[in-house]
């Protein structure tokens, strides 16, 4: 079975300042994301040994572990290139901009739904923009890393709402982090994912 690796950040740790601090990025990438990679590999290893009759395991628990850590790995792999150095007037253009206008009425309407999804998420998880093969857009909340994912839609924009993404800097002010998040979205990357509609291939 496959083993997973931590991909490097596609920019420097301080590239997203002042929206997201260097220290948050160091911990988030080097510790949190790395832990999901390690957890996914550990689960895969146990399942491999179980298959060969070398280890007795609680299959349900290990598969739940794999689902959690592998989705954590996949979502963080999507998250880093989803971000870019901040700009104040950061808006989607191209096809994604047109689809948002057409399906939500305006970028402001879209922003309202995504922001509300982000702010009302209970506990830890993600707000995610997905696309289907016919270019229909969906905004959904994913709990933890692995609950409530649609089975086949392609995620094109993911927002990490775990406290480890913002707490060091924003403390309990999640809404402020969510508002500032709009400044660091890499819409070119979202456009690319919309064009390709490829499932994520976790490194
Ligand atoms: Mn995270």
Which keywords apply here?
7 helices; mainly alpha; 203 residues; minor pseudopilin epsh fold; 3 strands; binds manganese (II) ion; Helix Hairpins; three-stranded antiparallel beta sheet
Short description:
The protein has 7 helices and 3 strands. Helix content is about 50%, strand content about 10%. With about 200 residues, it is mainly α.
Write up this protein.
The protein has 203 residues and is mainly alpha-helical. It has two domains: 22-79, Fe,Mn superoxide dismutase (SOD) domain (Helix Hairpins, Orthogonal Bundle), CATH 1.10.287; 94-196, Iron/manganese superoxide dismutase, C-terminal domain (minor pseudopilin epsh fold, 3-Layer(bab) Sandwich). The protein contains seven helices and three strands. Strands 2-1-3 form a three-stranded antiparallel β-sheet. A hairpin with a 5-residue loop joins β1 and β2. α1 (22-51) packs antiparallel against α2. The chain is globular. 28% of the residues are buried. The mean pLDDT is 97. The structure holds manganese (II) ion. Manganese (II) ion (MN) binds next to α1.
Radius of gyration, in angstroms, nearest whole number: 18 Å
* Count of the separate structural domains: 2
Distance N to C terminus: 13 Å
How many strands in all? 3
Question: What percentage of the residues does DSSP assign to strands (E)?
Answer: 5-15%
CATH topology of the largest domain: minor pseudopilin epsh fold
* CATH class membership of the largest domain: Alpha Beta
By DSSP (H or I, 4+ residues per run), the number of helices equals: 7
Mean pLDDT: 97
Low-confidence stretches: none
CATH superfamily membership of the largest domain, which one? Answer: Iron/manganese superoxide dismutase, C-terminal domain
Order of strands across the widest beta sheet? 2-1-3
- CATH architectural arrangement of the largest domain: 3-Layer(bab) Sandwich
Q: Enumerate the distinct ligands.
A: manganese (II) ion
From the spread of the alpha carbons, the general shape counts as: globular
- The succession of helices and strands, N to C, reads HHHHEEEHHH
Can you summarize the main beta sheet?
3 strands, antiparallel
Relative helix content: 40-55%
**Overall SS class:** mainly alpha
């Amino acid at each position: 079975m496959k083993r997973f690796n931590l991909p490097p950040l596609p920019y420097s740790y301080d590239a997203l300042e002042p929206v997201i601090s260097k220290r948050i990025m160091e911990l988030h990438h080097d510790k949190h994301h790395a832990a999901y990679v390690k957890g996914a590999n550990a689960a895969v290893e146990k399942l491999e040994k179980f298959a060969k009759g070398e280890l007795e395991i609680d299959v349900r628990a290990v598969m739940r572990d794999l689902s959690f850590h592998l989705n954590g790995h996949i979502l963080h792999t999507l998250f880093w290139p989803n971000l870019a150095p901040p700009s104040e007037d950061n808006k989607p253009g191209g096809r994604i901009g047109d689809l948002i206008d057409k399906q939500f009425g305006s970028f402001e309407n879209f922003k309202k739904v995504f922001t509300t999804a982000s702010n009302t998420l209970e506990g830890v998880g993600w707000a995610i923009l997905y696309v289907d093969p016919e270019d229909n857009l969906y905004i959904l909340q994913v709990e933890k890393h692995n609950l409530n994912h649609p089975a086949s839609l392609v995620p094109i924009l993911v927002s990490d709402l775990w406290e480890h993404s913002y707490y060091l800097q924003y403390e309990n002010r999640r809404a402020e982090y969510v508002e500032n998040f709009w400044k660091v979205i890499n819409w070119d990357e979202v456009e690319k994912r919309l064009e390709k509609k490829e499932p994520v291939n976790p490194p």
